[in-house]
Amino acid sequence: MIRWLLWLLGGVLLGGIVHLATVLFLPQTATQDAYSRLLAITKVNAMVPLPSPSPQAALMPFMDPAFVTAVCRYDLSQGSLKLTAPVTPAYTSVSFYTRQGIAYYAINDRAAGRRVIELELMTSEQRAQLPEEEDVTAADRLIVESPTLTGLIVLRAMTPEASVMPTVRSVLGQAKCQLQPVAS
User: Fold this and answer.
1) In total, how many domains does the chain have?
2) Which range of residues forms the domain containing residue 129?
3) Taking a C-beta distance cutoff of 8 angstroms, is the pair 38, 8 a contact?
4) Are both 80 and 119 inside the same structural domain?
5) DSSP H helical segments within the chain, as ranges?
6) 3-state secondary structure of 19
7) What is the distance between the alpha carbons of residues 34 and 172, in angstroms, rounded to a whole number?
């Protein structure tokens, strides 16, 4: 009897290891991740509005039709990036993702406390090269460190009613994500 229990325990343990390894490895083998889907419709280091989702077709899975979305596909190999995003009356959020889809920073309009969310995105090496400025405090300059050179910035704004959708789209159309060249 104990022999059968040991075989059963070994089988369950081996099955758990195989299951865990598969779940952890599977996302790395996906060919149609968010970054790949956005390659065709986005330019590097430029904010691009995404089309509204419909029940028949949505660019990304689980897109909420109550939100207007814009995406910036960034590449920090040529320098840091400056993001300027005006906030909308209802709710605005900015999320940062690595090339593999791992979220590493997010901020919304309430946390920013301003009418425009302004921040600089750079790598740790680029931040280390910044000159020490005694006049500039941390509250004056929001710097986000990216763990990778490439990734996505996703800007979302809520539209509480369908009638304000054009207004929210025009506000998000003013968002910019511009490359700041490396000073030599």
Assistant:
1) 2
2) 34-181
3) no
4) yes
5) 2-29, 34-38, 109-112, 124-128, 165-172
6) helix
7) 20
